[in-house]
Amino acid sequence: TARGRDRLRIAIQKNGRLGEPARALLASAGLAWCESRDKLFCHGESLPVDLLLVRDDDIPGLIADGVCDLGIVGRNVLLEQAGEREEARRPASSREWRALGFGGCRLSLAVPEAWDWQGTAQLAGKRIATTYPNQLRAWLRAQDVQADVVVLSGSVEIAPRLGQADLICDLVSSGATLAANQLKPVVDILYSEAVLAGPVQPIGDARAELADLLLRRIDGVLRIRD
Ligand code: PRT
Ligand code: ZN
């Protein structure tokens, strides 16, 4: 699929929390685009680097399939899909190349405020609602705790009140959403931020040089921001 392309393709979030900061980072790295009307594909004007604007969940798969060379996505999404592939015994297909310093959040366990939290042993036999089952299961295994993982596709924070689960495992940034749902964070299982994702194997053709150039420029921008 990636064969015969001499332009680099980067997938970023079309909307959402990471779309704008990802564009800003790439613009600071010297990229410029002519945004097309449908805005799904943006042809790069300053360098042969094009943008694909997609849902964040699609980014790891686009890299895996070779449709895109690089992507900007939350570490939480990248690791969740990596866990899914591992579960299915499929080889890893993308990995974190750089942490980008924006989109910071934690994947945390949160319990009803009334709970007297004693520690992870308290989770035994409990039902935990999440949209991140692979990371939660891996963490539970590492803690040697047996709990039921209730996989939801959204609105996780309301699950305890609806009786679907006893507690949740979800992304937290300010904590306002948890507080609004009478929940409190008790354990962080992952520190996440936006990352530059790329293939596990180095890019092996003419685009490698382009990727190197872009990486050097991104590193320069990140150094200045620090
Ligand atoms: O449409 P698309 O599928 O592309 O977007 P999305 O809705 O799946 O993702 P989006 O835009 O919400 O988030 C993109 C990425 O931003 C996530 O994968 C994280 O890496 C990162 N990020 C950073 C967050 C948050 N902070 C965050 N607070 N993603 C989600 N949240 C949610 C959280 O799930 C909870 O519902 O915000 C709520 C909590 O926020 P606080 O501030 O109340 O704690
Ligand atoms: Zn999404």
TrEMBL record:
Regulation of protein activity: Feedback inhibited by histidine.
Predominant location: cytoplasm
Start and end residues of each ATP phosphoribosyltransferase catalytic domain: 55-206
Broad enzyme group: transferase
EC nos: 2.4.2.17
Keywords recorded for this protein, A-Z: Amino-acid biosynthesis, ATP-binding, Cytoplasm, Glycosyltransferase, Histidine biosynthesis, Magnesium, Metal-binding, Nucleotide-binding, Transferase
Pathway info: Amino-acid biosynthesis; L-histidine biosynthesis; L-histidine from 5-phospho-alpha-D-ribose 1-diphosphate: step 1/9
Function per UniProt: Catalyzes the condensation of ATP and 5-phosphoribose 1-diphosphate to form N'-(5'-phosphoribosyl)-ATP (PR-ATP). Has a crucial role in the pathway because the rate of histidine biosynthesis seems to be controlled primarily by regulation of HisG enzymatic activity.
UniProt protein name: ATP phosphoribosyltransferase
Source organism of this protein record: Cognatiluteimonas sedimenti
Boundaries of the shown chain within the full protein: 6 to 231 of 304
